[in-house]
């Protein structure tokens, strides 16, 4: 198929293509060639390619997922909605596995060689991969390409990734310049700067940013985020004073926070909870935890901070909090409390696997894997094997019932 015809039929292909910088010469990257024999291995069941790739990623079969994802650029499988999703899914999985060589090769294959138009997430993933390796300048090169090219716009997460990397590299002037270039302001970027200055012992610069955002005539914060932002900034100063050994100053800040905001906003509540747990204020932390609207991050903080404590928590709705059940099961297994995890697993998921309409609320692969690892840890190998079989059946049923088209 000609390039012009492919552009007309599929707008995910860029119309005036300019290569995206990947920090490596294209000739140094291993070529990706689709084996025609592999295409014949894709059976005729009506399951979209995106769900085949997703299932392989969930099963931690990244090599097979990457190989199958290469087909996303072929005319037979190319789909406006699915193609970039497939690209991002496999690149994101490789990033989590820290297989950065494959990340660069896949990005180059999809968005340079195959000329798929990426989205902001696509670029964020490879920028984060470069930053994780200390290659900040390469990430900045891609950012400048995005700005000049104009087809993919940087998002708030883009600025958070780059600001964090510049702060870690102690390149504060560049970090501040980057913040000033943002069209839409993010309080999280300001907080990264505040924490960076505080960690570097530059209290005055951190305080100046804080004071500027507090003043109505100088703040750049959206009014809807103002209270949340000020509370997050305050938590960073709490952390600073705790680290200086000045607990009274830190707790004075805590006492001045809006307790209702801590209770109903997990972003703020979790930040403050983390600071309290890290610095030994566990009684205060538990009091706050019992009043908070929780998410999975909240449970992670509590389980890590109170590894030998029975967590005083009551779920109210399976549909609203299924992610919290999954998190609690994983953390109980990590602590060797498999019997508790087993009871919770049975209580929460005993009905969902029997009803195809409830299966989406059932255990995911990572929850099954946590139970398997927990059983093995305490020597219950037979139960681990049974759970493995149950995981296979559940995954196949979900794939067949919900993801076929």
From TrEMBL:
<feature type="repeat" description="PPR">
    <location>
        <begin position="119"/>
        <end position="153"/>
    </location>
</feature>
<feature type="repeat" description="PPR">
    <location>
        <begin position="364"/>
        <end position="398"/>
    </location>
</feature>
<keyword id="KW-0677">Repeat</keyword>
<dbReference type="Pfam" id="PF01535">
    <property type="entry name" value="PPR"/>
</dbReference>
<dbReference type="InterPro" id="IPR002885">
    <property type="entry name" value="PPR_rpt"/>
</dbReference>
<dbReference type="Pfam" id="PF12854">
    <property type="entry name" value="PPR_1"/>
</dbReference>
<dbReference type="Pfam" id="PF13041">
    <property type="entry name" value="PPR_2"/>
</dbReference>
<dbReference type="InterPro" id="IPR011990">
    <property type="entry name" value="TPR-like_helical_dom_sf"/>
</dbReference>
<protein>
    <recommendedName>
        <fullName>Pentacotripeptide-repeat region of PRORP domain-containing protein</fullName>
    </recommendedName>
</protein>
<dbReference type="InterPro" id="IPR052308">
    <property type="entry name" value="PPR_domain-containing"/>
</dbReference>
